[in-house]
Amino acid sequence: MIQDFGVTMLETVLGFLSGTIIGSVVGLSLWFSKTSYKVAKPYLIFLGSLPVFALGPILIFWFGTGIFSKIVIGFLTTFVIALVQAYNGATETDKNLLTLIQSFGGSKLQAFKKIVAPSSMIWVLAGIRININMALLGAFVGEFISSNSGLGYQIIVAEGLFNVNQIWVGVIGLVLIALIFNLLTSPIEKWAKKWSR
Known about the structure:
The chain is mostly helical. The protein has a single domain, classed as MetI-like (MetI-like fold, Orthogonal Bundle), CATH 1.10.3720. Helix content is 84%, strand content 0%. It is built from 8 helices and no strands. It has helices spanning 2-29, 34-49, 56-63, 67-91, 95-103, 108-145, 151-160, 164-195. The protein is elongated, with a radius of gyration of 20 Å.
């Protein structure tokens, strides 16, 4: 069971980090060009409306039943959320501050570093909190569909054997992973609030 806990934890961490980091970077980068965002918007709407969990069997068919397919599911469930949150945070930056830095001859890159990025951190953090659960859910659903390890796999096996105790152990393991992630985000939240001031 400890090994299964570790597998689900690894899938969740990698799916969460890849989707959140790449999504946030892309979202913040789109602030530099509204045209790029307008071009990307239809694709983002398409990705956001995709029933990723329903596509789980297809993704597992493409990427196999191993850890990588669960990471891909976790990435897809977190990427769009992180991107949209980061972009919205960037666009909600105080226009007066941007005008002020431009009046002093500041470049767009300087405005991004000094104003846009710090003020976007609260939005990015909100996306992180959502993505914690989405990445865990993605890993669990992937294991539930097809896997030979992980807490989702153990719960399926326990259901087949009518082993209620083992099911509860699997559920408690998932809760522990969620709690660990939430504890780890507390320092990030304090840092983000400090940097956004």
